[in-house]
Amino acid sequence: MTHLSEPSAAFLEGLRELLGPKGWLPADGHPGYFTEPRGKWRGRGALIARPILTEEVAEVVRRCAAAGVGVVPVSGGTGLVAGQIATDGPTPVLLSTERMDRVREVSREDAAITVEGGCVLETVQQAAEAAGMLFPLSYASQGSARIGGALAANSGGVQVIRYGNARDLCLGLEAVLPDGSVFHGLKSLRKDNTGYDLRNLLIGAEGTLGVITAATLKLFPRPAETATALCALRSPADALTLLRKLQETLGESVSAFELIARQGVDFVLDHIDRSRDPMEAKHPWYALLEIGAPGAAEALEGALGELWEEYLEDAVLASNEAQRQELWRLRENIPLANAEVGAIASHDISIPIGRIAEFIAEGDDMARKVAPGARINCFGHLGDGNLHYNFYPPEGRRRDEPEFKVLAPLVTRAVHDLTHHYGGSISAEHGIGRAKRDDLARYGDPAKLAAMRAIKRALDPVGIMNPGAVLSVEEERT
Ligand SMILES: Cc1cc2nc3c(=O)[nH]c(=O)nc-3n(C[C@H](O)[C@H](O)[C@H](O)COP(=O)(O)OP(=O)(O)OC[C@H]3O[C@@H](n4cnc5c(N)ncnc54)[C@H](O)[C@@H]3O)c2cc1C
Q1: What is the gyration radius of the CA atoms in the chain, in angstroms?
Q2: Atom 16, ligand 1: which residue's CA is nearest?
Q3: Are 342 and 400 in contact (CB under 8 A)?
Q4: Domain boundary among 283, 316, 336
Q5: Rounded to 5 degrees, what are φ and ψ at 42?
Q6: Is there a single domain that holds both residue 112 and residue 193?
Q7: Could you give the residue ranges of the DSSP H alpha helices within 153-233?
Q8: Model confidence at 2: pLDDT above 90
Q9: Span 197-250, pLDDT tens digits
Q10: Are residues 133 and 201 in the same domain?
Q11: Domain ends where: 172, 192, 221?
Q12: Cβ(79) to ligand 1 under 6 A?
């Protein structure tokens, strides 16, 4: 039973007046706000609020709290777990940060950048580069994902191995809390032990504890030189050995280490225009890796030379920026190719790094039993223990066939059971949203879940913020 209300016509008219002509859109005629990248979920909303000022966000939230109307924050809409997609319950107001997209300040002295919640991730990277610095958060949706969403989902991407995920990159936040008060926490301090850490509570909360309106983020020196290689390997175990040996030789300069299965390369070659295999022969596994340091190319060439005979089947080193981008396109196009093929079930899991090879072998055995004939595309950020372990129909079949619809929850249950058995996580970087809510309830630590419910009730007693995301509405109340 929900305690929230449908917004009345007068309530919505009040919001339209508050926000002005550019500050809102009708829900009808703007389907883009109600779909998500995998096309599995469809959302609803009474109105799309597009505030431009933090105080406007605060007033929208205050009015929603007073009227008991749900608020669903949306930034770039690229989230993969339907956190931004309201599917049931009374119709909420969608709160888009897209007009709050300014870079407020770049400081080389503080090695920090302050941006609004709707600033596109790529814009933050470019602003850092223009100041001669690096903002390292990086993934395939960076041209659309916005900082508010990236922090709310605590997203990861391809450079976590060296620089950490969104949480590690955030120094301070400005946010509107569920009662409409504004948390002014935009600090660039590296040390600040002054009580409970509200910033870290809001990061990863997926919009259930407030709206992130601005953030101060860490910047880093740009590596003097970058070297990129695609290595062909016999097995995930060899990929892990390669990673360990490179880290022993080259230390923290290893800034990316992506595992790619042959199936992923085949999907890209089959479905993405102008893609080509960088190697002549086919290999079962690949690692795309990057080193950032003075003398990186020479150091990488030397390290790979030493490992060649024992571990490498082949390797391609990028000799210029165009070749580097071509290698990265192969990796970044995997999610797009996957979407073209259409997954029966996809999983974003993490496993203790030392047990990944064992997990993949046992997972493949399990797959043969649960989903005989299914194609597995296993890829991901191996250096972080993060696998995208996805199942696809056999060649020539489609995921919407009834057989696969029945199979999907069985596959996911088997993968998540195995992940849990290995001490892993059922959500490494995409979050819980609405897609994994039941899995969180099943596998989550009971004490942690009880604390989450208590925090939610304390900060959002009316339950307006992103109702039904992360915790079910019923759970929040108990
Ligand atoms: C092709 C592709 C590749 C991807 N690769 C990666 C990857 O490598 N690593 C990774 O971690 N993720 C990846 N993602 C998913 C990633 O989570 C999103 O791209 C991004 O982090 C979410 O940002 P967004 O602005 O699109 O947020 P949205 O999708 O709009 O929202 C995501 C969540 O945050 C909440 N939210 C949005 N804005 C705010 C705000 N201002 N305040 C509070 N809550 C808010 C929403 O309610 C929702 O719960 C990928 C997605 C795609 C489509």
Answers
A1: 23
A2: 79
A3: yes
A4: 336
A5: -125, 130
A6: yes
A7: 160-163, 198-202
A8: no
A9: 999 999 999 999 999 999 999 999 999 999 999 999 999 999 999 999 999 999
A10: yes
A11: 221
A12: yes
